Amino acid sequence: DAGVTQSPTHLIKTRGQHVTLRCSPISGHKSVSWYQQVLGQGPQFIFQYYEKEERGRGNFPDRFSARQFPNYSSELNVNALLLGDSALYLCASTEGVGPWGQETQYFGPGTRLLVL
Amino acid sequence: GENVEQHPSTLSVQEGDSAVIKCTYSDSASNYFPWYKQELGKRPQLIIDIRSNVGEKKDQRIAVTLNKTAKHFSLHITETQPEDSAVYFCAASIPNSGYALNFGKGTSLLVTP
């Protein structure tokens, strides 16, 4: 029973570079959400996708973008990296058959990004 | 945007005592309120959740209460054990954003033997 998987687990980049993070949801789940968790804080919502369409966007700059593929996996892209982008990036999977806003989100292990 | 306030930020209890963590939310349209436990270096794990049509839910030593009028909800852990030590996050659904959640800043719970 595979849970949510994310790759890579760790990543080191320098300022100005771009990064692509990947997420595979639980089999059968149609929705993926992305969160940024800075050390010592709660996860902060970035994007939510359902059936390949963006359903929600948090308060992040346009340097952040995402997409969902036909197999429901997802990518988060961050351009022009800043030191402040250093964080744990979490992907969460939701089955996506229930009423909006009322389904459990299952988190992946995260990708830890360090920007130097 | 919607805010979720969580208190206290740290909580230390003795084994066997109860622990209570409280959260408030700002958007009355929020309808789903999960609680997550995160151990150091690990992913957040759901421990209990409550939907807006329910006032209280219990699962063994863990219970959650919701007061929609006051827009606050609480986590209660009874008979705490050292393995309950972790950071706990409350969250509230973000209206019109699919299944997205707004999280509190977390409560670091320490249970001492």
Task: Give the secondary structure arrangement, pairings included.
The complex is a heterodimer of chains A (116) and B (113).
Chain A: E1 5-7, E2 10-13, E3 19-24, E4 31-37, E5 44-50, E6 53-57, E7 64-68, E8 74-78, E9 87-94, E10 106-107, E11 111-115
Parallel strand pairs in A: 2-11
Antiparallel strand pairs in A: 1-3, 3-8, 4-5, 4-9, 5-6, 7-8, 9-10, 9-11
Chain B: E1 4-7, E2 10-14, E3 19-25, E4 32-38, E5 45-51, E6 56-59, E7 62-67, E8 72-77, E9 86-93, E10 101-103, E11 107-112
Parallel strand pairs in B: 2-11
Antiparallel strand pairs in B: 1-3, 3-8, 4-5, 4-9, 6-7, 7-8, 9-10, 9-11
Which key terms come to mind for this protein?
heterodimer, A: mainly beta, 7-stranded mixed β-sheet, 4-stranded antiparallel β-sheet, globular, B: 113 residues, 5-stranded antiparallel β-sheet, 11 strands, 0% helix
Overall description:
The complex is a heterodimer of chains A (116) and B (113). Chain A is mainly beta. In chain A, 0% of the residues lie in helices and 49% in strands. Chain A has strands spanning 5-7, 10-13, 19-24, 31-37, 44-50, 53-57, 64-68, 74-78, 87-94, 106-107, 111-115. In chain A, the strands form 2 sheets. In chain A, strands 2, 4, 5, 6, 9, 10 and 11 form a 7-stranded mixed beta sheet that branches. In chain A, strands 1-3-8-7 form a 4-stranded antiparallel beta sheet, with no helix packed on it. Chain A is globular, with a radius of gyration of 13 Å. In chain A, 38% of the residues are buried. The mean pLDDT of chain A is 94. Chain B has 113 residues and is mainly β. Chain B is 0% helix and 56% strand. Chain B contains no helices and 11 strands. In chain B, the strands form 2 sheets. In chain B, strands 2, 4, 5, 9, 10 and 11 form a 6-stranded mixed beta sheet that branches. In chain B, a hairpin with a 7-residue loop joins strand 9 and strand 10 (101-103). The radius of gyration of chain B is 14 Å and the shape is globular.
